[in-house]
Write a structure and sequence with these properties.
Length: 488
């Protein structure tokens, strides 16, 4: 989507989008003599200017028919509904036949940031992936290619500095999450990220199987043992902050397909496990966003990329593996693989980069989906201020987080009779015992948070900033967290 900004409406043909704040109708003044007719048409569609509502009408003022789209913002501050305004407009117009839309904010109190957020919502909502839809009918294809935001001073530079790169990061995440597992596996994940990061200054380093074996990553390697694909550890470094300050570490679970392994999952719905790399996808997207917008912070992103397959060589329930930090793990259930991958990546990250703060993102447990559904991701942390900072960044960005507990009593549930730790606890509190497992790999003094994103990386219905499918969850909360903390 081509996004631009202007002081006044351009010449030529376009659909005109006007925000309507509930019963406050000043946006309609510019319709002149046609105002009454258009308001009447909107009323007939039961449009009340409510947030997310919309109505269509036609204007004939200059002799040709122009499509008018009224989008409800519900009143309140423009900033609060700006993203939804952009998202709603695009959702309505994307395949409508319209090729160009003008969103006119003139005189409605949108400051530079609010207007740029209209563009953000529009750009995010316009993402789709039609690569494999070779038989789309003409009528089903997107038509909208251009959006002009009119009437807000300073919006263009705000957009360029703060949001344009973020959109590219979210797009990368959505693409990685959408692609099936025969296309995106460890090696190709790395290649996609490399291509996207070209010329951004993001430094990329990759460890292969041999290096990981030398480092003693027995937990991660055990998971990949049944796969024909080679594992990878993808490391992305962004040094936009003061030289020598220790980086924030972001860690992603990148299981490019999770069959469950020998503890195999039921067939129904197993295809959704192509997005078991959603945590890694979010970390890659966030790193790209930070680099694109030249964030003034030092951040390192690490993605543990493996495939969990059943095979003659696959690891078995009961196997004991040794992790990079020397802890032994009894693998009770080969389907609790994400924590095994993260354990070694966390150890590597702490030893290599000495971060003060480490955040991991993972589609870790089905139990998380049972707890919070598809609205919030769970956040677990050993540090109250870190949890609060992340929750605030979540609220501000739209990637909402809900705090979950940790504690000694939960930790006892993953003691193993044969090894230091076992990879599953009882069924109850499954997301918490998974987080406890991860905490055993957090070094003394490191502020750590774990985001269980199992319920939010994929959506069966469209949202404000995504169509049904990949949501891009995680990129925005991480980007906002960096802005609010490391760049502050
Ligand atoms: N990737 C899954 C978690 C998952 C399940 C995410 C459903 C999204 C939707 C994870 O690897 C897994 O299989 N977890 C098991 C853990 C159990 C064996 C302790 C689970 O949640 O069932
Ligand atoms: Mn699993
Ligand atoms: Zn998994």
């Amino acid at each position: 989507m081509q996004i631009s900004f202007a002081a006044a409406r351009p010449a030529g043909s376009f659909a005109l989008v006007l925000p309507v704040a509930g019963s406050e109708r000043s946006a309609l003044q510019s319709l002149g003599a046609e105002r009454a007719a258009i308001e009447g048409a909107a009323k007939a569609q039961r449009f009340e200017g409510e947030l997310g509502g919309s109505a269509e009408a036609w204007s004939h003022a200059d002799g040709s028919a122009r499509r008018i789209l009224l989008v409800g913002t519900g009143g309140g501050q423009p900033a609060d509904s700006a993203e939804k305004l952009g998202g709603t407009a695009v959702a309505k117009l994307l395949t409508s036949g319209v090729t160009k839309a003008v969103i006119d904010l003139s005189g409605l109190g949108y400051d530079a940031d609010a207007a740029a957020k209209v563009a953000l919502g529009a750009a995010l909502r316009s993402w789709r992936y039609d690569l494999y839809r070779t038989k789309l009918k003409e009528k089903q294809k997107p038509t909208l290619t251009e959006i002009v935001i009119v009437g807000a001073d300073g919006a263009e530079s705000r957009w360029n500095e703060r949001y344009a790169g973020l959109v590219e990061g979210v797009a990368l995440t959505k693409e990685l999450v959408t692609e099936p597992a025969n296309i995106i596996y460890a090696e190709t994940f790395v290649e996609r990220v490399r291509a996207a990061a070209e010329g951004t200054g993001l430094e990329i380093e990759v460890l292969g199987e041999t290096e990981m074996r030398e480092l003693g990553m027995g937990a991660l390697l055990g998971v990949n043992q049944g796969s024909m694909r080679e594992p990878r550890l993808l490391i992305m470094k962004w040094n936009g902050g003061a030289k020598g300050t220790s980086p924030l570490a972001l860690i992603g679970k990148g299981v490019t397909f999770d069959t469950g392994g020998i503890s195999i999952k039921p067939a129904a719905g197993m295809e959704s496990m192509k997005w078991d790399m959603g945590g890694a996808g979010a970390v890659a997207g966030a790193m790209l966003a930070l680099a694109k917008r030249k964030a003034k912070a030092n951040v390192v992103g690490l993605c543990g990329l493996v495939e969990n397959m059943p095979d003659g060589r696959a690891q078995r329930p009961g196997d004991v593996v040794t992790s990079m930090n020397g802890q032994t793990i009894e693998v009770i259930n080969t389907d609790a693989e994400g924590r095994l991958v993260l354990a070694d990546v966390m150890t590597y990250a702490q030893r290599t980069f000495r971060p003060k703060t480490m955040i991991d993102l993972a589609t870790l447990t089905g139990a998380m989906v049972i707890s919070l559904g598809h609205e919030y991701a769970g956040v677990f942390s050993n540090d109250d201020s870190l949890a609060a900072e992340l929750q605030a960044a979540g609220t501000k960005s739209g990637d909402k987080l809900w705090r979950m507990p940790l504690g000694e009593a939960y930790d006892r549930l993953i003691d193993s009779p044969i090894a230091d730790i076992k990879n599953v606890g009882p069924r109850e509190g499954g997301s918490i015992t998974a987080a406890q497992f991860l905490q055993r790999f957090v070094d003394e003094g490191v502020r750590w948070a774990h985001l269980d994103v199992a319920g939010v990386v994929w959506s069966d219905k469209p949202g404000t900033t995504f169509d049904k499918g990949a949501t891009g969850f995680g990129v925005r909360v991480l980007d906002q967290f960096v802005e609010s903390t490391a760049e502050a």
